[in-house]
Amino acid sequence: MISLRDVQTIQKKWGDNLVELGKLKGDFDACKKESKLMIDSLYGFDNGEVLFKPTKAKDQQFRLTFEGAQSYFIGGNQHFSEDNGFALQPWTNVRFENASVILNEKSAIAMGNYFFTQVDGSEVKVEYTFGYFADKQGQLKINLHHSSLPFN
Predict the structure, then answer these.
(1) Which of 70, 81, 88, 135 is most buried, judging by how many CB atoms fall within 10 Å of its CB?
(2) Are 72 and 57 in contact (CB under 8 A)?
(3) Helical spans, DSSP H, in 24-78
(4) CA 147/CA 52 separation, integer angstroms
């Protein structure tokens, strides 16, 4: 059974990885290598389909491939020209506040707000729904990532 602690652990890893990517902003090769490690360890692209709808994507808002997700995080991909590299803001912290989490034997869904801390200390609030599943090794992976800015 997937536990709330399992979900909170992968959420923390996701936020920590995003912050680390931002620290590599000036070295695209390092960003590419680190983002591959992040996506491979946290997302289930190697186990089937991942539904990925990032916050700041308008023209190609649905990213169903590893390439599309990586481009969103670090930019630099001509096939996704709108991407500036969300992870390269940079952010100094990411904090999840789950409104609710549905736990099942081999899957979980979490919905709430996450807060991205900018260099000046201010936070950007973003709404999310993440889906998780236990892979063949029992590791929790993301197979649904939907985030958006709050209604204005």
Answers:
(1) 70
(2) yes
(3) 28-42, 66-74
(4) 9
pTM of the model: 0.95
Smallest CA-to-CA distance from 147 within 57, 22, 85 is with: 57
How far is Cα 13 from Cα 18, in angstroms, rounded to an integer? 9
Q: Looking at this protein, which amino acid is placed at residue 30? A: A
How far is Cα 93 from Cα 72, in angstroms, rounded to an integer?
A: 18
pLDDT digits (tens, 9 = 90+) for 12-33: 999 999 999 999 999 999 999 9
List the structure tokens of 32: 């590419």
Contacts of 147 (CB under 8 A, 6+ apart): 53, 54, 55, 114, 126, 127, 128, 129
- CATH assignment of the domain containing 52: 3.10.450.50
- 139 SS3 class: coil
Domain count, the chain: 1
Per-residue pLDDT tens digits for 97-115: 999 999 999 999 999 999 9
Q: Which domain holds residue 106?
A: 4-148
